[in-house]
Amino acid sequence: MRLPSGVLKTEPPGTASRPASAWCWVAVAAVLCAGSLIACALERQGAATGAVPSLGLDWQPARFGAQPWRAWTAAFVHYSDRHLLANLAGALMVAALGLAARVPLRCVIAWALAWPLVQVGLLLQPGLQHYAGLSGVLHAGVAVVATHLLWRASPVQRRIGMAVLAGLLLKLLGEAPWAGVISHPSGWDIAVAPGAHVSGALVGWVLAMLAEASHSGLRSLREALGAIDAHD
Fold first, then answer.
1. pLDDT above 50 for 5
2. How far apart are CA 47 and CA 43, in angstroms?
3. pTM of the prediction?
């Protein structure tokens, strides 16, 4: 059976190569995972001496101006083993999503830019004095891939993009970010910041829309210039 052009599909190894940009997407996810594991190791090592390395890495809005690196390093810090394992699993899924979607370089750039901007978005919640974890950045990654699929020519891919964005929206609404800066979901041993998930999804969506619109505009311009040249 022939699949429509552009449909997400899985092929046997060696039958088709993934574009280099898709592997760059996986590399971003790998950096996020590696950084998280290193931060965890540092935290365990510090615990033996009474030091708390995470306090120099996590998101603290009051210190952002003097310590801007926190917009990046906050993603590496996790407040419990369960928190870390859940986000590592999430990073693997987002990596697989981008690989399956064969994301272009503009998506990789959008996700990389979203990484620090997710934390910067938390400046709108000054009551959140500390924040850490990959979840906001992962929400951004999902939004980037889903938005990219909405711009594809294939109706099937557009439907997949719509379904992913709808699922993401339902998840965010289910977390009731308007109810407070933090929540305490059952089964978790840490407090959750729903606003970080909203920030991630919004930042990812906006950056992806800008990337896709710019790409589409440039392509239309090239086609128009090509048509002019053809008539000269």
1. no
2. 6
3. 0.87
